[in-house]
Amino acid sequence: MAEELFRMEGISKSFPGVKALQNVSFSVNKGEVHGLVGENGAGKSTLMKVMSGVYRADEGKIFIENQEVKIDSVAKGHQLGVNIIFQELNLAPHLSVADNIFIGRPPKKGPIISDRQMHADAKKILDELGININTHTVVRNLSVAQQQMVEIAKAISYNSKILVLDEPTAALSEKEIAQLFEIIRNLQKKGVGMVYISHRMEELGQICERVTVLRDGQYIGTRNYKDLTMDELVNMIVGRTLEDKYPKYQRTIGDVVFKAENIRRKNIVNVDKLEVRAGEILGIAGLMGSGRSEIVRCIFGADKADSMELTMNGKPIKVRNPRPGHCPWHWLRHRRP
Known about the structure:
It is built from ten helices and 16 strands. By secondary structure, the chain is α/β, with parallel strands linked by helices.
């Protein structure tokens, strides 16, 4: 019989003009990874922010190990062992791994920070999680996956009983996801209860025992994942059966409207050619830190490229800054039919 660790009952939360949560209940058992899913705006992040003390619920009760508690601040959440790792990492890139893990609360000998003790404590946490990172490494020099692991280590340093992972694999490769899942399984063995928020349905079967669905701020249901089919889960999320998941869409693609060639900026951007045709949506894909944003910033004029050749409807153009009238995107948005 699973031992309940955390429970929320009848949680409601409103913002001006919006009922974000309506009478939602949710629970996590010891050593469980509980999936929380729903469309954008379903209330997942709001519920987790109530859980961790970022928001205060308008109505409802919270229990930890069957004792009612009030989590009215992030500090109170930490004190009770509840931590959340947001999709956007919250690390100080200029500080070391150890500094980030114990930021704001370093171990001291009298009035003096004990740097040696801090690094020893950080190494102990990383070793227990199976994370091989030097505690003296400056965070900006780590990969996105390693930074995610430092975030987990920081949360565990608060003696977390409950850990919320909000879209933790959004910027990770398959190899890095496998490494993250191994860390999650190590935490399960220690009895840590985890909430796993994700839009990637295929991940739920690998890591979650139960899954709870929210829709439009309302609780739809909780099911054992192994008892669900993908069609049933999708039906719970969207509220209807999807007869045609991948409908065919005919689009008319015209001639090249915009072309960017030889885009170079330091050692960050190195692109030979991009073309956009009339009626076309050009996607630029890649992991976080791969240079997607930097490419567009050069084209837009927000960053100065070392070299770049831009053509609009066959005519060369130049960009100097992103003010209206100085970039090709402004022309595309404001041209008259």
